[in-house]
Write a structure and sequence with these properties.
The structure holds two protein chains of two kinds. Chain A is built from no helices and eleven strands. Chain A is an all-beta fold. In chain A, strands 2, 4, 5, 6, 9, 10 and 11 form a seven-stranded mixed beta sheet that branches. In chain A, β4 and β5 form a beta hairpin. Chain A starts with a strand and ends with a strand. Chain B is mainly beta. In chain B, a hairpin with a 6-residue loop joins β4 and β5. The chains are: A mainly beta, B mainly beta. Chains A and B meet through β5 and β10 of A and β4, β5, β9 and β10 of B.
């Protein structure tokens, strides 16, 4: 499978715990994006990387959230001290190109439930 | 500010009929649009895109129409099939800024 993959697919955690999600983009895609999607809504931009550099972060990304892409390949999204409001689907997408206009290919997402 | 929305949150069509899903946007500077399909438990899947220098683009069984005068985008699906049942999102892009997604329309195909 050469598409975007995400792990885990589902995560249930207790409030206050830390969680980490992983995204493996399409091979050689230089751009990687994280989105959050709540029920019945479209994806909301969180942050994106060009290679290993994190170029933009949304105001939605509080200081409890951190994302990395250390070698310009896979990326991790960590949420510290989770809150019930963090419950959502976290989507990763990747693209190849020079700008954010390029078609983004999405992974299946990680569904987080904070109890 | 930017606002991408959909006229109908749900749409039910008979199998074999044509479907039309609409999207309104408020940012007249947006110049690139994508339609995504999202099935239950999956991430959004690219369907078709269109740039602002075009008003129509056709794919396999799908057509996207762009009316910049009224800032309206539509997705037409010909001969709708059960496998077309999903939530459809339009997304707009303004000169390379981040994509902004609408809330989605759920398409249900009736047998």
């Amino acid at each position: 499978d050469t598409g975007v993959s995400q792990n885990p697919r589902h995560k249930i955690t207790k409030r206050g715990q830390n969680v980490t999600f992983r995204c493996d983009p399409i091979s050689e895609h230089n751009r990687l994006y994280w989105y959050r999607q709540t029920l019945g809504q479209g994806p909301e931009f969180l942050t994106y990387f060009q290679n290993e550099a994190q170029l933009e972060k949304s105001r939605l990304l509080s200081d409890r959230f951190s994302a990395e892409r250390p070698k310009g390949s896979f990326s991790t999204l960590e949420i510290q001290r989770t809150e019930q409001g963090d419950s959502a689907m976290y989507l990763c997408a990747s693209s190849l190109g020079r700008s954010r206009r390029e078609t983004q290919y999405f992974g299946p997402g990680t569904r987080l439930l904070v109890l | 500010g930017e606002n991408v929305g959909l006229h109908l949150p749900t749409l039910s069509v008979q199998e074999g009929d044509n479907s039309i899903i609409n999207c309104a946007y408020s940012n007249s500077a947006s110049d690139y649009f994508i339609w995504y399909k999202q099935e239950s438990g999956k991430g959004p899947q690219f369907i078709i895109d269109i740039r602002s220098n075009m008003d129509k683009r056709q794919g396999q069984r799908v057509t996207v129409l762009l009316n910049k005068t009224v800032k309206h985008l539509s997705l037409q699906i010909a001969a709708t099939q059960p496998g077309d049942s999903a939530v459809y999102f339009c997304a707009e892009n303004n000169y390379g800024q981040n994509f902004v997604f609408g809330p989605g329309t759920r398409l249900s195909v009736l047998p």
